[in-house]
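Please produce the structure of this protein holding adenosine-5'-triphosphate.
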Amino acid sequence: MDTTPVFSVEGLWKVFGPKADRVPGDPELTALDPAELRSRTGCTAAVRDVSFDVRKGEVFVVMGLSGSGKSTLVRCLTRLIEPTAGTIAIDGEDVRAMDRSRLRELRRHRAAMVFQHFGLLPHRTVLDNVAYGLEIQGMGKAERREKAAEVIAKVGLEGLEHRRPGQLSGGQQQRVGLARALAVDPEVLLFDEPFSALDPLIRREMQEEVIRLHRDEGRTMVFITHDLQEALKLGDRIALMRDGRVVQLGTPEEIVGSPADDYVRDFVRDVPREQVMTVRTAMRRPSADQDGNGPAVRPDATVSEAIEAVARAGAPARVVDKGRCVGVVDSDTLLGVVAGTEQPAPPGTEQPKEAV
Ligand SMILES: Nc1ncnc2c1ncn2[C@@H]1O[C@H](COP(=O)(O)OP(=O)(O)OP(=O)(O)O)[C@@H](O)[C@H]1O
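Below is the modeled complex.
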């Protein structure tokens, strides 16, 4: 995967409240926990000294409980909320130095947001809602309608072009919101808990839609959610937030397999490990006589898939990467992962995630 960052964030703070600016630079105040800071200064530090990169083509998930700072953090990326301190760059360009017109261009063309409450215009048809972003970009009517129709087909709304939002289900309205953001062909799509108001079946359908869009187009996405299952399903990497800080940033497998602290461990306790962990972290080195024996699995196969292969064959599985046997997994190792007694490979021994 290309590792050029789209967004690069360093030492970002957002403090709400009186004289918020003094907080990030004052070691005495930054050492306080959120409740103490509030009682001493009347300020809330919604984002505290956060640094990360969003890589080109990845789905970067910001996850955390309500109030942990997810929305504030993502709104700071395009300065819908003004950061208090720190740096933000998009493709190397300083976002905090942008003037109004540059910012408008950033939000309209480069980083489009899909909101939880759709934000659709009630008196406009689906087609005109989707074309709206193109209209404010100054695109002519015929051209924008053509482009909108194309995107409507892409998100599965064909035939509904002339309805108004009130005549659509929640899931369909969310697809219109998604289509409207996609129509401007942004470099990054920012999703603010887009599916949390949808019922579980529709929600799953929308998650599949995002996965499909990402697979087909490779567009960079930043996705906010408070739902761990959703984060694990969609994220290439997940930033887990608590009280304004990122407590762990890693792949779903790293977060589930090597929690950074007790908070994260508790957070992921009920996750079925065999559905997240891959055989790459569970495998052992093959011995000389093992090449050629047993069923073959890919390094990125889940432990659950490997269990099935091993059970069917009644023999350890070979982990095969580009035609070469790079490891073996047997039932003991696989059970160890399920039980949580098998330690994942230490950092640095992992191989890069394959493109799928
Ligand atoms: N305009 C504001 N003024 C003061 N405090 C604010 C403001 N906006 C957010 N906060 C506080 O900042 C903290 C982080 O809020 P934020 O909305 O970013 O969290 P969140 O993780 O997105 O929560 P949720 O999942 O409930 O949307 C909370 O304590 C919140 O009360």
